[in-house]
Design brief:
Elements (H helix, E strand, L loop, with lengths): L1 H15 L3 H8 L6 E6 L6 H13 L2 E7 L10 H11 L6 E6 L4 H7 L4 E5 L3 H17 L4 E5 L10 H7 L5 H5 L5 H19 L1
Parallel strand pairs: 1-2, 1-4, 2-3, 4-5
Length: 201
């Protein structure tokens, strides 16, 4: 039974995940391609960077869009998150940093005249969730396609929540350094020191 479930899941993923080479082949005849890669990036991780690097190599223009939900609590403000992205991605000439709030991602992509939405898939849970969103997005706007990219195992379980969960424990800096850019690590160290000092006052 377990084997059957695993086989079905693997087959399903193979059918739905668009490989890097296949994406390049499918886009080769188009004049200009623009894609959106969105997230809260609170903070940006090396897993995010992997997806961004691959997407920037595939598309002529990539918009990295920072989502901001007024009802959600963030470790870093919108300004801080955008600043970290801009500094981290400064060497990418075809990347634009933007923000969106209060609208469906597919509508934002449509307003930006993008034809693709890029999503990273880390595990089967991500796949099921993103598959559903892909269907919904297609119902809203059938002209925008969703591209799934699977990071290597080194980044498969890396998430912003995981990184933030390490902060504050003994030796956390050495652990977190493996999962985020140096500029993000320094920002996390500074913010943690501010919080510790505030508690002492």
């Amino acid at each position: 039974m377990v084997f059957a479930v695993r086989f079905a899941l693997n087959l399903s993923i193979k059918l739905w995940i668009v490989s890097y080479n296949n994406v390049i082949d499918s886009l080769g005849t188009q004049e200009m391609t623009k894609a959106i890669y969105a997230g809260s990036f609170d903070p940006i991780t090396n897993g995010h960077l992997w997806v961004i690097d691959k997407a920037a190599a595939i598309f002529d223009e990539l918009i990295v869009a920072v989502g901001d939900n007024p009802g959600k609590s963030y470790t870093f403000s919108l300004v801080e998150r955008m600043s970290l992205l801009e500094k981290t991605l400064a060497n990418h000439k075809n990347i634009k940093i933007d923000q969106f709030s209060g609208e469906f991602l597919v509508n934002y992509a449509l307003n930006q005249q993008a034809s693709f939405i890029v999503r990273g898939i880390r595990n089967s849970q991500d796949y099921e969730f993103e598959k559903t969103l892909r269907y919904v997005n297609s119902d809203v706007c059938s002209t925008i396609d969703t591209i799934f990219l699977i990071p290597p195992r080194d980044y498969a379980e890396v998430s912003s929540s995981l990184v933030k969960g390490f902060v504050g424990t003994n030796g956390w800096q050495n652990i977190v350094a493996k999962y985020v850019p140096e500029i993000v690590l320094n920002k996390l160290i500074n913010k943690n020191e501010e919080e510790v000092n505030a508690k002492r006052e």
